[in-house]
What we know:
Elements: H1 6-12, E1 19-22, E2 26-30, E3 40-44, H2 56-76, E4 81-85, E5 101-106, H3 125-132
Antiparallel strand pairs: 1-2, 2-3, 3-5, 4-5
Zinc ion binds next to helix 1.
Amino acid sequence: MSDNCIFCKILKGEIPSAKIYEDELTYAFLDISGDFYGHTLVIPKKHCANVLECDPSTLQAVMETTQLVSKHYVDNCGFTGVNLFNNSGVSAEQSVMHLHFHIVPRSENDGYHISPINEGNKVDLSEVKAKLEVK
Ligand code: 5GP
Ligand code: ZN
């Protein structure tokens, strides 16, 4: 737990939240923004900042809960797909520094556009590969 972290405060019950699912290692609750119907956040109970800093077992637990809740939305709640995303780091627009994955449940014709729009920028993939390949 981290004293000044709002998601740790949610886990401690100091800030109310709309719980969707909970187990020993993780907690899922509705995002407060109300931007997308059912927008859900999945967090570990153990505080860590983001994907870049958490240990693999914590990330695994969060991903398993993300899959469980996503399948629940599709199997039991009338949705047909989900968008999943995570922001790790201030430059990636992370605003709460406690690891979380976003789930946005989707339906045909829901009118949302969440995937990045690729406008066909000219990129030299071999140059990018030379720079980014894991060696
Ligand atoms: P980030 O930008 O860090 O990826 O996402 C943080 C998310 O946390 C935002 O979507 C924001 O709406 C949500 N959020 C921030 N404060 C609270 C809160 O107190 N309660 C809940 N339920 N969501 C919050
Ligand atoms: Zn925290």
